[in-house]
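Bit of a strange request maybe. I'm writing a small parser for structure token strings and I need a real example to test against, not something I typed by hand. Could someone generate the tokens for this chain?
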Amino acid sequence: SFYARCFVQLRLRGAKDRREAFVTFEDGTTESAEWFAGRIEVLNSFEHDSCKLIDEKPMVRDAGDDLLIQLRFEGRFAQPMDLHDFPFDSQELSI
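Reply from user aminoacidic:
Good idea to test on real output. This should exercise your parser:
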């Protein structure tokens, strides 16, 4: 496992006009981009809830015709380590 503090930015191309109705469900109800951003989660956290948002909530802002979702989070992540050439190994750490 490893500990990291991260910044992630998602660009949703052409989504500015759909900010308030970003997600549409089968029954026709909609939710905003802010609602969507609040449901993004890290899948390789070391333990349940070991990864937390640094800010109170993700930031969603306009960028031309696009929407940007920005998240800052920190936590402990699970990652298998390849130790075939210890102590000279290099690792790719996925988040």
